[in-house]
Amino acid sequence: PRLQPRWGHESAVYARYMPKAPPLLDPFKKPASEPNPPTSALLVYNPAGGKKRAAKLADTIVLPLLKQAGIAVTVETTKHAGHGVELGRTLDLSSVDALLVMGGDGTLGEVLDGFLSRDDGAAARTTVGFIPAGTGNSYMREVLGVPASGAAVGAAVHAAVEAIVGGRSRAVDCQQLDMTGLDGKPLRRCSINTVMAGFGPDANAVAERRRWLGSMRYSVSIKTEILKLPWRKKLPCSLSVDGGSPQEMEDLFLFSCFVNKHTGVRHRLAPYAQLDDGLLDLAYTTRPLRSIATAAKVDEMIKGGGKHVHATSLLNVQQASRVRLETDTPARLMVDGDIIGFTPLDVAVRAEAFRLFTPASPAPS
Length: 365
Prior knowledge:
Blueprint: E1 6-7, E2 12-13, E3 40-45, H1 49-52, H2 54-68, E4 72-77, H3 83-90, E5 98-103, H4 105-116, H5 122-125, E6 127-132, H6 138-144, H7 153-166, E7 169-181, E8 186-191, E9 194-198, H8 199-207, H9 216-226, E10 237-241, E11 247-249, E12 254-258, E13 280-285, H10 292-303, E14 315-320, E15 322-327, E16 332-335, E17 338-357
Parallel strand pairs: 3-4, 3-5, 5-6
Antiparallel strand pairs: 1-2, 7-8, 7-17, 9-12, 9-16, 10-11, 10-15, 12-13, 13-14, 15-17, 16-17
Helix pairs in contact: 2-7, 3-4, 8-9
């Protein structure tokens, strides 16, 4: 008979079978709109994103293709961290049909955050187009249904511009986050990818010191940080989902809340997520994790298409509309690949928050 995997306190043991990954799932529940191509656009990009290749991609692929399609484009570049938020909030969009943003997940999220905070009605009348030019490009990999990292970035940029020129769009979700900023002041941000606490930000902080490794830095840093698990400081927490009673945990190893499926290049942490389903996808550990072998197995399962959903005695994977995370001491929060604040954290889904140019039928992921 088929048996469920048994998870001991410090090691994972499989019983007679290797669990299967959840099947690939379409990125969207709803069909795209009829074509309505833009005639004018404002393009914002991070010239330092993805090994400083954004400027080259803009000059060699993006701008020529948009010009060929008859779209008049004005260009703005981000100058420093956080500048994307300011541009999204203050740029004059009164004479354009589309706001185009090129960069990694962090740049896309920054500009969107400012865009959605506007009070001039621009967010309701302007369609957004995202163009992947970062390292992992997790969000656009799912939107486009094609690989979007490493050597595949050029083809993904072509696919993104084709979606913009094609003029089909969908109303998609984001998550609204309330936390304490790095400066100690209250901070509200929007996220298109994930917010993480616990091991994720710890590994990311190390990965940022290894940018010379490119997209490999995430996998490498996860492995090196797993080796330090026996000495990791405990993170007691309280977690509430959809207003329910707080769940007290003596040590939170992993917390992640998504609107899409992937973080990094291969980590399919939220395999049931769709970009327009009006839900958050939550994954978190429910007990302490100190075993190097178990943590390595969990990482392997996540990278194996999301097999971690079967590890129900260690992990909880669920969908929700709002979440609150409190920790005994402030814990770092990673939002769309960047560490920008600390707990406590409140997360709420913003359903159909903005219109995004998309292919008609992207491949499932």
